[in-house]
Each structure stands twice: as structure tokens, then as C-alpha cells.
């Protein structure tokens, strides 16, 4: 170790600097609010995988069942020759159900994700299981302008955005993403998973699981702030808070101060009153009609819809 370097100081990196700047901004605004993207370090991603398996968290298994049952019908909307673009590709689990329903030599698969190492590792696994599939990963933030590989003549470009991830966007972000997608998918379409408005108790339970995994996922933002940025705050100072806000048709997740406290970050001190929160996520719930109207404003025409028997989740085909 170089003399003068303190091993207890968090490492500076471009990512840390961005996190620090965003956290300072989050704590300075009123009400305090930060982007949900800071959930997803390695621990947060592992906790999210666990959430997907929880008995209370219905979206993942409901969407998987829809894909399992209707993959052939979904793939039939795409056309014979397809460039399949998965937005925010992650572990590439759900797309396998679509690929199983398509002739592989008719597909060029383009998974897009901001995390290069994870994307490439997932592509290696997919290539091993689907020999002969053309895979062209793109490391990019899919919500910002990016360049997809060209589509050959006679090939339709089809987007795939499962998981109700669009629910974590603000309405303005959802609109911006849909406009960008409608533009780059013109002549093809988008297959998208959305979580539907439903009984408030079902929603409440899904984000307040008995095992406390969602609480740990939420609190991980503060763990990261402590470990990566050296933030100081009382270890038991914040509690997980998640509730359905019917005015906005969304679950809101917050970190709530249990008592008046101070959070110190890089020489600044941010005060929290008892009960005050740092808003960490919203998860919008839609009606099928409401989402189709949103998509229509962005340039899509509504197509087929697949829902489960409870009407809890929907997969929509939208023509671009
Ligand atoms: C990733 N996203 C769709 C999840 C959701 O349901 O909004 C994230 C999540 N937050 C708490 N539990 C799951």
C-alpha cells in the first residue's frame, strides 16, 4: 500500500462518483428520492432473484406461465424472419421460452444491456444451449439513443421487454422509451410484459413479503452508500416502507427514518425528521386499455393480449 493511502477510504471510480453525485442530489431534493437503478449491485441483483421466487411476488411466475403457454402464438405475431431485440436483457431466462417456439435459423438475437460482463456471461450460456443461434449482444443503455445492428431485407425487428420493468419508469420515462422503441422497431413490433392494477392487498403483500427479502433489497441502497461511499448513519435508523398509492396506480418503496437522524456523506450532513423518507422506487400498475393508449400515443398499434386467469399480469403485442 502506498504511504498516505488509507485502506478504509472507499475506492474512487467513475461509477462511485456518479452514485455519490446522485445520492447528494437525492438527499438535497424535497421530497428525497433516488433512482431505483442503485438497487442493482451484485447483492441487490441476487436479492431481486430471490424476490422473483417469493410466494407473495406473483409477477415473475405469472409472466413465465404466460410465455410457456402462449410462446407459439406470440412468436406467430413476429413474422418468418426476425431480429429479436431484448431490452435490459439480464439473465436471458424468459427469451428462451420464445426461442423454443421459433426456428432458430430465422432469428438474429440482439440482447441489449448496460452491464457488459453480465450480458456477455449470459450470452455464453445461451450460445451453449442454442448452438446455431445468431447472437449479437449490444452493451448500451437502451433508454438512450443507441445503434442496433442492421436488419437484412425481409427481416422484421421485434422488441422484447418482459418483467413489467416499464413499471419502474416514470410516466415521462415510459413515454420516452416507447417512442424510441416505436421508432427503431418500425415495421415490426414490441412484446412487452406489464403488471396490472389489482386488489390492493395482493399488491401490498408482493412488496412486503414475510421473509423480509424486499426489505433487504430496499435497504441495500443504504448498505451500498455506506460501503462504497463511506456514508454514515445509524445502522438501525431506516425501515422498509412499501404501499400502494391509488392516485398514481403505483407501489411506492421508501426508506423511512425511524427517528430524527443525520446521514453524513462526503462532508455534508442531511437531516431526516422522524417518519421522513427517501423514495427509492415506484412500480406502476396498468390496465390493458390504459397501457395500449400510452403505447398508441408513442406510435404503436395494439395487437394481441395474453393474460392469466386472475387478470394480474399481461403480455401485449404492439405493432410498430
Ligand atoms: C424490476 N421490477 C419490475 C420490480 C417491480 O416489481 O417493480 C422490482 C421490485 N421491487 C420490489 N420488488 C421487486
Automatic annotation (TrEMBL):
InterPro entries: EgtD, EgtD_Methyltrsf_superfamily, MeTrfase_dom, MeTrfase_EgtD-like, SAM-dependent_MTases_sf
Record Gene3D superfamilies: Vaccinia Virus protein VP39 (3.40.50.150)
Keywords, comma-separated and alphabetical: Methyltransferase, Transferase
Any one GO molecular function term: L-histidine N(alpha)-methyltransferase activity
Location of the Histidine-specific methyltransferase SAM-dependent domain: 20-319
Signal peptide location: none
EC number: 2.1.1.44
GO terms classed as biological process: methylation
PANTHER family tied to this protein: ERGOTHIONEINE BIOSYNTHESIS PROTEIN 1
Protein's UniProt name: L-histidine N(Alpha)-methyltransferase
Amino acid at each position: 500500500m502506498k504511504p498516505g493511502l488509507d485502506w478504509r477510504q472507499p475506492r474512487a471510480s467513475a461509477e462511485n462518483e456518479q452514485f455519490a453525485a446522485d445520492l447528494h442530489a437525492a438527499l438535497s431534493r424535497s421530497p428525497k428520492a433516488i433512482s431505483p437503478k442503485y438497487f442493482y449491485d451484485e447483492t441487490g441483483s441476487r436479492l431481486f432473484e430471490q424476490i422473483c421466487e417469493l410466494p407473495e411476488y406473483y409477477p415473475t411466475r405469472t409472466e413465465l406461465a404466460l410465455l410457456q403457454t402462449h410462446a407459439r402464438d406470440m412468436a406467430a405475431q413476429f413474422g418468418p424472419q426476425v431480429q429479436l431485440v431484448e431490452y435490459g436483457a439480464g439473465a436471458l431466462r424468459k427469451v428462451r421460452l420464445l426461442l423454443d417456439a421459433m426456428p432458430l435459423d430465422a432469428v438474429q438475437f440482439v440482447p441489449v444491456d448496460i452491464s457488459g460482463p453480465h450480458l456477455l456471461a449470459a450470452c455464453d450460456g445461451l450460445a451453449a444451449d442454442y448452438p446455431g443461434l445468431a447472437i449479437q449482444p449490444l452493451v448500451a443503455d437502451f433508454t438512450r439513443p443507441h445503434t442496433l445492428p442492421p436488419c437484412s431485407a425481409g427481416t422484421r425487428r421485434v422488441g422484447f421487454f418482459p418483467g413489467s420493468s416499464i413499471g419502474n419508469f416514470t410516466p415521462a420515462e415510459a413515454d420516452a422509451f416507447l417512442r424510441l422503441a416505436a421508432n427503431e422497431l418500425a415495421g415490426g413490433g414490441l412484446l412487452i410484459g406489464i403488471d396490472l392494477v389489482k386488489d390492493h392487498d395482493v399488491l401490498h403483500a408482493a412488496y412486503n413479503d414475510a421473509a423480509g427479502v424486499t426489505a433487504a433489497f430496499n435497504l441495500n441502497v443504504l448498505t451500498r452508500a455506506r460501503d462504497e461511499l463511506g456514508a454514515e448513519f445509524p445502522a438501525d435508523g431506516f425501515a422498509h416502507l412499501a404501499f400502494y398509492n391509488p392516485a398514481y396506480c403505483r407501489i411506492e418503496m421508501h426508506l423511512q427514518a425511524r427517528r430524527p437522524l443525520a446521514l453524513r456523506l462526503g462532508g455534508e450532513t442531511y437531516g431526516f425528521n422522524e417518519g421522513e423518507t427517501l423514495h427509492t422506487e415506484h412500480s406502476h400498475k396498468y390496465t390493458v386499455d390504459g397501457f395500449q393508449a400510452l403505447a398508441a400515443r408513442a406510435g404503436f398499434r395494439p395487437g394481441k393480449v395474453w393474460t392469466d386467469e386472475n387478470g394480474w399480469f399481461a403480455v401485449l403485442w404492439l405493432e410498430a
